[in-house]
Structures are given as C-alpha cells and as structure tokens.
Amino acid sequence: MDDLTLLFIACAAVTYATRCGGHLILSRFGTIHHRVSAALDAVPTAVMAALVAPSLVTHGPAEVLAIIVSGLIALRAPLMFSVAVSTAVLVGLRAFI
Amino acid sequence: MKMAGLNLSDDDLWRDSLDGIRDVLPITLGVVPFAGVFGALAIEQGLSLGELALASMTIYAGASQYAMLDLMGQGVPAWSIVLAVFAINFRHLLYSASLGRRLAAFSTGQKVVAFFMLVDPLFASAETRAFKRGLRPAYYFAYGTVLYATWTISNFIGALFGSLIEDPASFGLDFILPLYFTGLVIGFHRRPNFLPVLLVSVAASLAVWFTIGSPWHISLGGLAGLLAAALLSKPGEEVDHG
Questions:
Q1: Mapping DSSP to helix (H, G, I), strand (E, B) and coil, where does residue B236 land?
Q2: Range of B67-71, B122-126, B213-217 with top mean pLDDT
C-alpha cells in the first residue's frame, strides 16, 4: 500500500473510532448520573449550536437575518419549510444588500 | 415483521423509510455543492478518482476531509493530518454517546453500520425522531443511505466536471447547511434548559473561534453547553417528549 492509501485508512479509522467510541464508553457504565444524562440530552443543542455559531460572524447581515428567520420558523413549522423559506429570504436579501 | 419486541407491519416500515427520505431531502441540496467542491479540489490536488473514492467512502466526514486536503497541500507529516482529522471529528464521540441510548430497536450489526453513517444532520434528525415517533432502523437507514449516496455521487460529479460548477452562492446553496442546522437546533427547544445551553454554546464557540481558532470551537463550544446542562440539571428531570 502506498502512503496516501495508508493516510486515508488511518483517517477513516480515527473517524469511525469517534463515531462508535462514545457509545462503547458509555455502555460500560450501568447507571448514569442525572447530570451525565442531562449533559447527553443537551448534545444535539450544544454541539450543533457550536458548529453553526461562526456563520453568524463570517458572513454579512443577509446571512445573519436568514439564520434568525430559519430559527423563528423552526419553532412552529417543519424543518423543510424553515429551510425553504430562509433560503428564499437569503437569496432575496443578497440581491438587495 | 418483529423487531426488538415491536410488531411492525410493512406499512410502518414503508412509512418510516418515506419519513427518512422526506427529512433528508432539504439537506441534500446543501450537500451537493459541499461534496462537489471537495471532489473538484481533490482532483486539483492530484488525487486519482480511485483515491478520491477511497477517502470519501471510508472517512465520510466532509469538514475533516477539507482540512485533510488542505494539510496535504502544505506537506505536513501524516500523523499531524490524522490528529487534525481526529480533532475535527471529536464531536462524534458525544453524538454516539447520546444516540447509543436511542438504538434499542437496532441489532448489533445494524449498530455497527449506523455508527459508520453518523454525520451531523443524521444525528440531529435521529434524536428528533427518537422523541417524536421512536427511532427505528428503517428511518435511520433511509435517511443515512440517501445522504451517503448524495455525498459520494456529488464527489464524482465535482471531480469529473469541477470546472463547470456554477457559483453555488447564486442560489443560496452555499448557506443551506447552516440554515438546516439552525432549524435542527431550534427543533430541540422543548428540552430542559434549552435556552441557557444554546446561549452558552454559541458564546463559547465564538470565544474559541476568535482566540484558539477552528476546529476547536465545535468541541469546546459544545462541551461548554454540556457543562451548563449538567450544572443546571436536577434529579428526576426527564426530557420532555414533545
């Protein structure tokens, strides 16, 4: 195998390790403390928010407004509707700003 | 069909699969340019189609693959590339710890494949599904397979026709991923302490992003939110199934 193939396989291996590792570690513990359980329930909110946050400062006002619109609509409506409307708002705003 | 004590008819399987496909469709529009540009860049870096296929189909983690390509171009040692990929993908440890609790209906073999497919949108959608209707394999694998196929096929289209890609910004496609993730985050607004967790994560992410820099804002910002959730937790407080 050449170096590039080895590099890709190593990257794939560490990535898969992260994707099953959390479950493997957690499943070694029988009972979970309520604070650990609360932290795990917060994973989707916390990590996804941390992932998106820089988008608020790396673009312009059109993108910030589109994120706010997407969030507000998602409080009430299905995700698909929120993505469609906020994307349309973004395209519109970019044409004017 | 019997599955982990649940009696599921073919109708339920069909319904689950269709729901998975319906939920993944909006994000495929964002994944096409993201994956297409990666394919074009990989070819530009001198990768063959076979090498691109090996990288994309085994690693299957877009953001870390962009970083990997970038570092390969800088000629840094291989171990530091692997370390960077691990750092960017560290968040999946948290995903699998949380999602593992929702996979009661999955066999061991299904779990092995499910964790391979565990990318950001699939994680958040599976968490959402777990509290709405219960998470079953048909939903998860329908969503995951469409996303994996979209990623792989778009890589090849980008690799073959990279020079022909229209500017994705003109249709807002370049920004669909953040908008989709925002909608997913807000979808968790009924979970305990949603607002403090959200604000702490965003603030910590931005603080890290401006100081230490990318990709640490994802893991450190996320961990700050988890810490807030743990500190605010009271015994017996359950997730609102709404």
A1: coil
A2: B122-126
ipTM of the complex: 0.90
pLDDT band at B239 (very low <50, low <70, confident <90, very high): low
- Put simply, the answer to whether B96 touches A66 (Cβ < 8 Å) is no
Measured in angstroms, the CA of B89 and the nearest CA of chain A are apart by: 6
Contacts of B174 in chain A (CB under 8 A): none
Q: Which residue has the higher pLDDT, B78 or B8?
A: B78
Question: What average pLDDT score do residues B127-136 get?
Answer: 94
Provide the pLDDT for residue A31.
83
Rounded to whole angstroms, how far apart are CA atoms B13 and B6? 12
Nearest to A43 among B51, B94, B175 (CB): B94
Residue range of the domain that includes B89: 2-166
Distance CA B115, CA B214 (A): 25
Mutate to test the interface with B, among A48, A86, A91 (most CBs of B within 10 A): A48
Q: How far is A17 from chain B (nearest CA, A)?
A: 8
Name every residue whose Cβ is closer than 8 Å to that of residue B11 and which is 6 or more positions away in sequence. Answer: none
What is the C-alpha radius of gyration for chain B, rounded to an integer number of angstroms?
A: 19
CB contact under 8 Å between A46 and B58, yes or no, is no
Cβ-defined contact of B118 to A42 (cutoff 8 Å)? no
Within-domain flag for A84: yes
Within-domain flag for A77: yes
B127 is a domain residue: yes
Q: Does some domain include residue A54?
A: yes
Give SS3 for B164: helix
pLDDT tops 60 at residue B242: no
